[in-house]
Amino acid sequence: MSVEEGGVPGLGRHRQARWTLMLLLSTAMYGAHAPLLALCHVNGRIPFHPSSAVLLTELTKLLLCALSLLVGWQAWPAGGPPWRQAAPFALSALLYGANNNLVIYLQRYMDPSTYQVLSNLKIGSTALLYCLCLQHRLSARQGLALLLLMIAGTCYAVGGLQDSVNTLPEPPPAAVASTMALHITPLGLLLLILYCFISGLSSVYTELLMKRQRLPLALQNIFLYTFGVLLNLGLHAGSGPGPGLLEGFSGWGVLVVLSQALNGLLMSAVMKHGSSITRLFVVSCSLVVNAVLSAALLHLQLTATFFLATLLIGLSVRLYYGS
């Protein structure tokens, strides 16, 4: 399996097994994010400020990377760190920050269901930028696989889960939101296109940067997350009144921060040694984990559409990576 196909060439059997385990762990963490957030709710609301969770996640990733260099888990570059190579990571942090904030603003110009369906277009934008910027050509079979991946995400967004009326006395906020009339404004459509473009660009640009620089991954992450902490610190300071930085975090909230931090580190390894396409498959496969955990923990019911989406995801993986 080559780098552009999402694998790491030349790996032995044991190292390939570790690579597969890492991808499975990342898939599980992606899928657990939404259910864990739901378990954090107090009286139907998240008790901590969203910007606090993002800032603490970035700070945790930064500290873990610094620790890995200090204790020698990764080799320190000879001659000291080349700080001039840190500057390009400012653009990565800016792109990720813009992408995360666009998700919030998009909700003002369209209903949640429309957003969930149309946001799957970022799979196409990422694949297009991947081919243009990294000069990789996808075969017709791989292109079909990515198209099926988009369709699978759309199917899941349309109706992969439904509320269990027998176990929920009141519909959850997500169910109330889903009853909104389908709508999207012209400005919302433009912002959605921008969101899909930035989502793909942030992924492909970061991959290109990490592969071109011959630096330890931990050091590259320190560059990236330093800018991420500074950016999110400014966003948190300007977010207005609300809970304090550490206020409202229960055990579930701490688990959200830790899992997202670890998943971010795993994804950086995917970008360094795998590809942006691999990341797309991880995110899409996490829908299955999300649905199963939602059914088990939040008493939601799996629908026939979910099983169709799961089948399409499996077929897409087979088409893209199968011989």
TrEMBL record:
Keywords: Membrane, Sugar transport, Transmembrane, Transmembrane helix, Transport. It is a multi-pass membrane protein. One of its GO terms (molecular function) is pyrimidine nucleotide-sugar transmembrane transporter activity. It comes from the Eukaryota. It is found in: Golgi apparatus membrane. The keyword DNA repair does not apply. The chain crosses the membrane at residues 20-42, 54-76, 88-106, 144-161, 181-205, 217-237, 249-268, 280-298, 304-321. One of its GO terms (cellular component) is Golgi membrane. Belongs to the nucleotide-sugar transporter family. SLC35A subfamily. This is Solute carrier family 35 member A4. It comes from Cavia porcellus (Guinea pig).
